[in-house]
Each structure stands twice: as structure tokens, then as C-alpha cells.
């Protein structure tokens, strides 16, 4: 399904208006950013860029789309003819997928004719908001699992097919090692995992027969689901019988999966039973409505869990299911020159940052693997060895600080040029490694799941002065 | 994108196992049902059936799908060859979309060869869980809005493109009158709505110029966004100026939209300003992070709001973003005869209802527009004028009751036959009307948003006896 019409109606109303007021071809620059991280966290893991770039690159309206728009009797014929011929002329700068990004920092800045940029708002936000949300939740969960493998199991509870497919990719970016979703595994070339459901057991006269049938077909993939009837009375004893038969035939069993009940207690007793029976390497997988805090609690109780399968609470980010990224005009061409633009608001934190910007991550000059702060600057500023800056957090007293002894690395990179040259990593495991490297450079306190310390993000004095000038102009208007 | 592989890996592992143990062609019947309504509600509005039927009807594997499965080196060649030829042979009985459905009642029962039915689990759950969740949330919100029009505005915060598209359809089913999502509007033939964003205002030198430009292009669609700078100091006064100019030119303005700030106070003052200026018919639309309880509160405060535009809290059902519908085996063929099947559990409410079932809604014989209870029965039971039944709620004392003086209406209807004849309503407004009719038959207390009274759902004595027999057999095993 092509997504050119996956656009709020008001974008088309405005685009028609821009066309009729002859402003559609003015160059415009919009930023995508967010104001509040999910789950009271301190950052978001950026994701979704690859799909955005693919959509923008191939953006054009089909004759059927145009016929539909014409049927609404709301748009001028000239505008619709113009749309028929329209192809993407936008360029995109963005943070690479897998970058930890803080509030107010642009994930992505898009530059192009005002009309084109406006018509892409809804789709770009939809993709970036969704995938960054799930990547961030996957980071929380895999971080709580403390290097134990986490499998993404959520397809049946995802909010529609795309949420299952692209959510699985985002889950890999955030740290998962595999997915149960075969289509996502195929599309993104990642491992598909999963053995049996309760229905397998129920389709046989009894549990032992079901386990034996499985072991015969998959002698090297015997991960047996032990909670269909009773984990400790039936499931684990039957599994151990089959494990012994497997070993006698020259195969080592994989282990068991527990999907209900008190996981902490069941896992401890199952571990002891398997150890006593001579299967200390058989793994225990847990998979019942888990989230980061439950995993932490299970591990704190000493539950001997080796793997986690995480469903609905990952694939919907159910504890915080919305990332409210926005898409705001930063600059607009006027008579051939760029003019910075601002959206002001009675709410101080909703006032936008005007102009073409760049985000720098500052590393300690004496310990370059250690990030110390981010700085949002105007794109044409020279970042020397000293920066005069003001906190980007509108809730703190806004004193000037002088930043020194850093190495500054610009984060926004060109990923799509107007001639449609795209440079953007596709492989979710490459992106996962990039994310892990970037996370390792942040302070541990910033990565705490509860009450994280906020990483310092600054604005340069020039950016703050420009913002204040535009606020003054708008409010004296 | 075809969705045959949008299936958990374990379904394929089991399907291959069924094939190799020669049980793949046994007839099986699975039920889709849920145990707990979102937001502590008492029911769910069923949705998603049309898409399920379309997917099942067209279900087949492409050569590319088969090549991918082969590359996993996990499945037998015979099984993969069998899949190459496989077409849907399932039949589906279901509640029509728009039916209020209570815990444990089958939304849908699917019957067909075990392998086919197993391979459809993930996709069917994904679609039904998502769309029923959003339809239910839309019902909550439109019910709180008390007959004022509600527009679905969530595309940019939906969990991926499909969540925006099918979520918009579900929102219409649940009671919304229109959507901002142009693609959804096209696909489902529903109204697309929306006027301007802040970017329109910002692209002009000042607000008044922006409003005037809009009114010139859309003289009969002047719904002006008044909160770019300051609602009462700038937005409403400028809107009134333009309204007067429009009226002088023979057009009536539509009204204003407020998207930030204290909506209750701003709306009251804006209303007074527009009334005093001679525009008592100009409407006020509110659209900032609204949900059912906020709408109720605004209306209780007397906020003079005429329309609502609802975004993220509707399209993600953010206060309760998961409907945990499950897909459980109810019966399986054994030597040419159906055997009822059960999934038992230490948790009483997780024990399933075995066998082929039908759901009846009972209406008061003396007041047939008044539903009094639901009864889940075995499909081959004769429902006469008297039913011996037991509450389906496992948390109440399970006394027998005798139900009399009712008219019983079966709810599960055949919607897809094995020869692929589908009968299933597509038009979301027809489904919305059906939902409204069904809701009007339920007690008001069942429809309360906070602490609703639970509608009585019963099981027939025969069904309870069968369930107990199978529990006894499984636990003596």
C-alpha cells in the first residue's frame, strides 16, 4: 500500500493554500523532536529513519490518489495537476538510527519546498514516533535483562500488522536478539525464533507424548513448554524424561519455557530438578507479560532465568505507549533568503528553537569515550574550544556556562540529498551495535530506569539570543 | 505486503510437526476471546472482522515466502511443498463487527485443518486485538462527548501506518464521525477532515494575514486555529475580524479550533467574544491530548465545546493500550469425530471453555429492546424457554440460576465458508449504527465509564458439566 495519502487532511488543505498563495515553492526547513521521554526516562533511542528515507525517496501520487483528492471537491485543479507531477525534492539530515537523543534535539531536519515538506509531516512523525518508542522500550527491557538474550514475542498484541513488523525491527535496534515474527525476520534478515504453544500439547493425548513427538522432529531444538497442565508436577518431570531419551540418542536438549504462574519460584524449583537430573546446561526461558521492572525484580529474587520472551509490554510500550514527537517549522525562505521561524506558546517548554541547527555531543578531552553534554547550536556557528551556553531545560535557572576541554562531534548527518542519494544504515544489528557504543559513552546515572539523572543539554548563546529576539518580535506584534 | 508470514515462528514449527505426525489435516476449532476489558470496562466493541476475512480468504504462500522458509533449514521439504499448494480451507463464525462482547465470549470461532488454523493464529489475533481495542476506546470517547461530533486526529502518533489506517476505521466503528487520515478516508469511504496547522500561520508575516489568506481560498471552510500566538489577545479577535469580512462577502464562518492551554476557560471566553460579535453559530473545536475523562470534565465545567478532535489517546488507546485476546483450541477431530478440548491452568480464570459454542443475547420477553443477559451454550444445545445456567464470572459463587421470560438471539454468525463465500459488512458507518443499536439495548450501568456494573454472562449447565469433566480427566492424568 503506498502511503502518500497517509497524511492529515489539513496538510492537503494547507498545501493547496500554499500553492494558491504562491508560497509552495519557497524553501522550508522543519525539525522533528520530542519534549518528554517515555516512562519518565531521560532519552529516546532514535529509530525509523530507514523507512522514512525509503518513503520520501519514492514519494509520488498515483492517478488513483489524485482522482480521490479531486473527488473531495476541495482543491484547485491546478494544485492537483501539480501534485500529479510532484516528486520528492527534499533533503534530510538526521541522527543515525540507534542514537540516544534528548528532549528538544532534532532527530531529523527536512529541507525542501514548503508544500513537499508539509505533506510529509504526518507520515514522518508516524514512523519516527512509533519506531523510536519501541526501540527505547526494548532498550529498557534488554538493559534490565542484564545481557541475557531477549526475544521479541509481541506480534499478536501489536497495534496492527505494521506495528508488529516495524516494531520487531525497532526491538532489535533497542537490544533484542531475535523475533518470533517470521515476516519481520525475513524482511530485516534477523533470527526467527519459537518452538511450541499450548495447542501442540493439547493436540496429543498427553503431555509426555507431545514432548516425545516434538523431540523426534526437532531433536536439536527441544525447548519444551512446561506449563500446559502443572509446571512442577507434570511439565518439568516429563521434560526431564524426554531430555534423557534425547541424550541417550546423542542430542543435548535446549531447555524449558515457563509462560504462567509465579516465575521466580517455579524457575528455582525447575532449575534444581533439571540440575539434579544431570541437565545443568538446559536453559530456562520466561515469557509471561514481562516488562523491565518485572525482569529486574525476578533477577533480584535470584530467579535462574536464561532467556526472556517479551510480548505485549514491549511491542506496544504499554507502560508509556506514545512518543509525542512533533514537526515544527524552523526556517522559511523569504525573497531568496532564509528567515528563522519560531512557534511561541504560553507554555515555556513549547516554544520552539528557530533556525538551521546542529547537535553536538561533547566528549571529555581527557577521556574521549565519556560523553559529558550535548549542545544544540545554529548550523553556521563555529564550534571552537570554548562554548558559551545556557541549559536547554526550561525548568532550571538559565545561567550562562562556559564549556571547555571537550571534543565536539556533530550528530546530524545528511541522509538524503535532493537528487535522492540516500546514505542510511539498514541492518538492525549494525544499528544495535552503534546504539550500544553510544549508550556506553553516557553516564550510568542517565541510563537508570527509575529516576534517571538528566544528561546536560545546552543551547549556544547565539541560539538563545535568536530565540529571544523572535519571541520579542512575535509578542510585540 | 502479504501477511502470510506475519506469524510467530512457533506456529510454523508446530505446523511442520503436525504435518510430520500426520495430524495437520485433522479438523480443529479455535476460539478468539478475551478475559479482561481495557480501562476496567465491562465490554469490548468487536472490530477487525472484515480485514480478517479478507486475509483468510486470500491466504496463500508466495514462492518467495517458501524460499525464505526453506532457507531457515528447519522444516521438512514435504511440508514446504504442501505449503506451496495450501489455500484457505477454513470457515469462520463470528460476532458481527460492532457487537458489544463480554469476557470469555468468542468474538470468532475458526474451523478447518489443524495446520491452517494454527498458522492463522498470530495474524487473526493481531487484527482483532488492535481494532477492537480502538473501537472500544472510540466508544468511550464519543460516549463522553455526548453526541457532539468527534474527529479522529491520531495518525502521527499511531503505532505505524497500519495502526493509523485501520485504527481510523475502528474509531468510526466506535462512534467517530470522521478522520483526518486521508488514506483511511479513501479506503473506507468516510469523511476526511482538517483545516490548518500552526505552520500555516507561521508561513505568513502575521496571524491576521494568514487567516485572511485562508478565508479567501476556503470562504466556506473557515475553521481558524486561534492558539498560535495568544488565543484571547490575538487569535479570537483576528478570527472575528475575518468572520466579519467573510459575512460581508456572503459567507458564514465555520468557527475556531483551540489546541492548547486551559480549554475550559479559553472556550468560555472565546464563546462570549464570538457571541458578542454576532457569531453565535460559529463552532468551537477542542483538540489537545483529550480522552474520555477530560472531555467529561470539560463538559461538566460547562465548556461550550461543539466538536472534538482526538489524537494519540484514541489512536493508541493510551490509557490501556493492549487488548489481550487469545486463540484457544476448543475442539479437535479424532478418528472422524469431534473431541472437545480444554486448556487448564492453576489460575481459574484461565481455564478455557471446551467444544463448539454459541453465544446468545437474551432480551426481556416483555421489553424486547432490553438485553438482560448473555448465555454461552454448546452449539448443539436447544435453547428453549428455560435455561439452567451458572455465572461465567469465576469470581462469584457459582450457584445455578434458572433463566426464563427471554427471547434468545444467537450472536455468532457464519461469515466465511470453506468455499470462500464471505458475508461480512464492510462499511464502518453501517457497523457504527449496528453498534449504537446494540449498545442502546444494554443497561446504562453497564456502559458507565467508571466502575461499570458487569452485565450478567452465564454458561449453560451442559457447558459447565463438560468443562468440569475435562478438568477432572486432565488433572487425574
From TrEMBL, chains A, B:
Transmembrane segments: none
Domain Nicotinate phosphoribosyltransferase N-terminal: 5-129
Post-translational modification: Transiently phosphorylated on a His residue during the reaction cycle. Phosphorylation strongly increases the affinity for substrates and increases the rate of nicotinate D-ribonucleotide production. Dephosphorylation regenerates the low-affinity form of the enzyme, leading to product release.
Residue runs in coiled coils: none
Function: Catalyzes the first step in the biosynthesis of NAD from nicotinic acid, the ATP-dependent synthesis of beta-nicotinate D-ribonucleotide from nicotinate and 5-phospho-D-ribose 1-phosphate.
Alphabetical keyword list: Glycosyltransferase, Ligase, Phosphoprotein, Pyridine nucleotide biosynthesis, Transferase
Pathway this chain belongs to: Cofactor biosynthesis; NAD(+) biosynthesis; nicotinate D-ribonucleotide from nicotinate: step 1/1
An individual GO BP term: NAD+ biosynthetic process via the salvage pathway
GO cellular component: cytosol
Reactions performed catalytically: 5-phospho-alpha-D-ribose 1-diphosphate + nicotinate + ATP + H2O = nicotinate beta-D-ribonucleotide + ADP + phosphate + diphosphate
Species in which this protein is naturally found: Limosilactobacillus reuteri (Lactobacillus reuteri)
E.C. numbers: 6.3.4.21
Family statement drawn from the similarity comment of this UniProt entry: Belongs to the NAPRTase family.
Domain of life: Bacteria
InterPro entries found in the cross-reference section: Aldolase_TIM (IPR013785), N/Namide_PRibTrfase (IPR041525), NAPRTase_C (IPR041619), NAPRTase_N (IPR040727), Nic_PRibTrfase-Fam (IPR007229), Nic_PRibTrfase_pncB (IPR006405), Nicotinate_pribotase-like_C (IPR036068)
Any one Gene Ontology molecular-function term assigned to this protein's record: nicotinate phosphoribosyltransferase activity
NCBIfam families given in the database record: NAPRTase_put, PRK09243.1-2, PRK12484.1
Name of the protein in question: Nicotinate phosphoribosyltransferase
Nicotinate phosphoribosyltransferase C-terminal domain mapped to chain residues: 357-466
Chain ranges of the Nicotinate/nicotinamide phosphoribosyltransferase domain: 150-350
